[in-house]
Amino acid sequence: MKCAYFPHLLFLLSLLPPFATVALRTTCLDMQKHKGYQFLTRRVVFSSQKRSSGEKYKQRIGKKLKEKLCAVEENKNKEIDGKYISFVMSYDTGDTINIEEIKNVLPHRYPFLLVDKVIHIERNKKIIGIKQVSANEEFFNGHFPAKAIMPGVLQIEALAQLGGILCLTNEENRGKDNLFLFAGVDGVRWKKPVVPGDTLVMEVEQISFKPTLGVAKLRGCAYVGGHVILKVAEMTFALAR
């Protein structure tokens, strides 16, 4: 193909629909430098990508809207009462650990015991627990008197204590008088503040555990009202020798 025919080629390509994909092969080195060629190539590719992503976005939004409408329709005539709320708040998977059993696992005590209940546990894998944040917490006296907010470091500590329960109840450590120390934390992100009256739902997953070294790595996330409050990419625990 010669460069002299390039304007005619541009005219023919302009007749194609905007979502068409065009492949060109040429021996002319100057053709790629032509502004019209560069503009046409970008326009064709961009239009195709934009249309594809737009269709996917509409499908995703439509699916979510349909799910919400179905949920509203199902609960429209249901009466919300204290019994129903109590049932939801006391979610139980059959493998819960109450506060007295937690005290048998963790050495922490008031006012530094920050896990009230474990509502689900999968040995060597995952654990879910809750912390009921009360207005009577000691740390609210100074953080802050005018606007009570749970300190972020204590939110991490609560996740760490939950992770400690997971490590101490694993098959390798169950029944032993072991103690895991918090050795490090990476990738911490806070999304929203935690205030009195919130129910902090925490989830910790085990990444790895090396019994010979006594080192465990976990990641965690905390929620309030279905919203992510805190995310921790990695927590490191070391077994106290």
TrEMBL record:
<keyword id="KW-0443">Lipid metabolism</keyword>
<dbReference type="InterPro" id="IPR029069">
    <property type="entry name" value="HotDog_dom_sf"/>
</dbReference>
<dbReference type="GO" id="GO:0016020">
    <property type="term" value="C:membrane"/>
</dbReference>
<dbReference type="InterPro" id="IPR013114">
    <property type="entry name" value="FabA_FabZ"/>
</dbReference>
<dbReference type="GO" id="GO:0019171">
    <property type="term" value="F:(3R)-hydroxyacyl-[acyl-carrier-protein] dehydratase activity"/>
</dbReference>
<keyword id="KW-0963">Cytoplasm</keyword>
<dbReference type="GO" id="GO:0009245">
    <property type="term" value="P:lipid A biosynthetic process"/>
</dbReference>
<keyword id="KW-0456">Lyase</keyword>
<feature type="signal peptide">
    <location>
        <begin position="1"/>
        <end position="23"/>
    </location>
</feature>
<dbReference type="Pfam" id="PF07977">
    <property type="entry name" value="FabA"/>
</dbReference>
<comment type="function">
    <text>Involved in unsaturated fatty acids biosynthesis. Catalyzes the dehydration of short chain beta-hydroxyacyl-ACPs and long chain saturated and unsaturated beta-hydroxyacyl-ACPs.</text>
</comment>
<dbReference type="GO" id="GO:0006633">
    <property type="term" value="P:fatty acid biosynthetic process"/>
</dbReference>
<dbReference type="InterPro" id="IPR010084">
    <property type="entry name" value="FabZ"/>
</dbReference>
<dbReference type="GO" id="GO:0005737">
    <property type="term" value="C:cytoplasm"/>
</dbReference>
<keyword id="KW-0444">Lipid biosynthesis</keyword>
<protein>
    <recommendedName>
        <fullName>3-hydroxyacyl-[acyl-carrier-protein] dehydratase</fullName>
        <ecNumber>4.2.1.59</ecNumber>
    </recommendedName>
</protein>
<keyword id="KW-0732">Signal</keyword>
<keyword id="KW-0441">Lipid A biosynthesis</keyword>
